[in-house]
Structure formats: C-alpha cells, structure tokens
Write a structure and sequence with these properties.
Number of strands: 10
Strand content: 15-25%
CATH topology of the largest domain: Rossmann fold
Radius of gyration: 18 Å
Shape: globular
Structural class: alpha/beta
CATH superfamily of the largest domain: NAD(P)-binding Rossmann-like Domain
Strand order of the largest sheet: 2-1-3-4-5
Helix content: 25-40%
Order of helices and strands: EHEHEHEHEHEHEHHEEEH
Distance between the termini: 24 Å
Length: 268
C-alpha cells in the first residue's frame, strides 16, 4: 500500500519535532512537503537536519499530500485547511481555538468528503469526554495554570491591561467560556477548544486561567459531571522550546498519525 503522504504547515517547535520523526520513518507514513512563514529559515533548518523536504505554499498541498498537519499560527488556519478540505482530504488541526469561529470549515469537510482531526494535544481524557457526550454531560470545567511567561502576549491580557510580570503569587487572569478563552488566548489554550468540541460545546464549557510564578510546567485540570461518570483529570506538561506549548503536544500528533495506519488502534 502507498504510504500516507503528510505535509507539515509550520516548522516551529512542534513542526520540527514532527519533521524529524517522519524523516526517520514511521510505518505507513511519509513526509511529503512543508510550508513555513519564513522559508529561508525553514530551508536552512531542514538542510542542517539532512531532511529532504520540498517547501511549498499551503494552497499547493492537495497536489502533494493526503493529510496536512497544521502547527502554525492560528491566523493562517484558513489558508492551510481550505485547499485540503476542498480537495476532500484530511487536515490535523492543533489551533483548535481557531476552528470555533469557522463552522464553515466543518461544513466544507462534510460536503467534500474531507475530515478535520483534532488530536488530544496537551490535554488528557478526551476519550472519556467524547464517551460521556454520547450520553448527557451536565457540566465541564477546565482550570489552566501556567508560568507567567507562557501567557505573555495574549490578546486578552493586552486588551484588558492585565500584567503578569513580577508576580510573587498565583493570579487568576481569566474566567469565562471556552469560546472566549480561545479568542483571548489563541496561542495558549487550544486545549480548551478541543475539550469543548469533545464535550458540550464552547459556550457551555467553563474555563479559568491562572498565571502562577511557582510553576515550571503548564498544568490543566478538567472536571466533568455526566449521567455516566463524574471525573477529574489533571496533567502537568513540560514546556517545549516554545514556553506556550508542551512537549507532549508533538507526541500526541505522532500518536494520532500512527493510529491512521496501525493494525491495532487503542482508544476511541
């Protein structure tokens, strides 16, 4: 069987980890191409790593790959996803928050036979949440705690004049819905969007965000009450070279890619 040809959109911390692993070889998968906002920098990195991978524009992805992994800034989600979905192909989306205001992309996938895949990413327990959603979920709440540097530059903080510099104790910087969190912290809480899509939606999922100077890891706790189970799940993620992103995010994408072709698939 022909391997699934994979494109990587974005060669930051996550994209580079994926490129290295795909270049080393994953059963049934092949690195076909990549795109980057800084082509010269991306080319230099690929060459230094000895990775043979053409750099192309996202609109050309459908001619070169079967699946595109989006690990780029949320603002370019549309340019990456739309050409692939119009061609009836798959996209794996890490900027889940950018999906919330774009239901037309889901409609496009449905009409053209494409598919949008949101991997578990830096969260955990999405299997349990999606299972509970087959019944009735009464409430979902997520509490995110991050080192202040992991929240720097968030639009919500800048728009509301909230500073996280020089903190000597934990500070709650946001309370609201997953939809509001995704809009206000587009590079920080894609986990909230993924959780909401797995469960009861972005407007019914409650979110708190804390800046905690005592932390070195990005911490997430989710609390779910449903007619089938009540559960609380917590995870402490080691940051990658990008403090806004945990190391486990790239590993989650790799695990999701393996599931596409594995003879044994564990988990829903």
């Amino acid at each position: 069987m022909r391997p699934t040809r994979v494109a990587i959109a974005g060669l930051g911390a996550i994209g580079r980890a994926l490129a290295r692993k795909l270049a080393q070889g994953l059963p049934g998968l092949a690195l076909a191409c990549a795109a980057s906002g800084d082509r010269a920098k991306a080319r230099a990195w690929l060459d230094a790593q000895g990775i043979a991978c053409p750099l192309i524009e996202p609109e050309a992805f459908p001619q070169h790959c079967d699946l595109a992994v989006e690990c780029a800034p949320a603002r370019v989600l549309e340019a990456i996803c739309r050409p692939m979905l119009e061609a009836g192909k798959q996209v794996m989306v890490l900027s889940a928050g950018a999906l919330l205001p774009r239901p037309d992309l889901v409609a496009l996938a449905k009409s053209r036979g494409g598919q949008i895949i949101v991997p578990t990413g830096a969260l955990l327990g999405l299997d349990a949440v999606t299972a509970a959603a087959e019944g009735q979920i009464h409430s979902v709440r997520m509490i995110t705690r991050k080192p202040p540097r992991g929240l720097l530059g968030a639009p919500y903080l800048e728009q509301n004049g909230i500073s996280v510099d020089g903190l000597n104790e934990a500070k709650r910087v946001f309370v609201g819905t997953a939809r509001e969190a995704a809009a206000g912290f587009p590079a920080n809480v894609n986990v909230a969007a993924a959780l909401s899509l797995a469960g009861i939606g972005p407007d019914a999922t409650a979110v708190e965000i804390w800046a905690d100077p005592a932390l070195e890891r990005n911490c997430h706790t989710i609390e779910v009450d449903s007619d089938s189970a009540r559960f609380t799940l917590s995870i402490e993620n080691v940051p990658s070279e990008n403090p806004k992103t945990g190391r486990i995010t790239a590993l989650s994408v790799l695990a999701a890619l393996r599931k596409l072709t594995s003879p044994l698939r564990v988990g829903t």
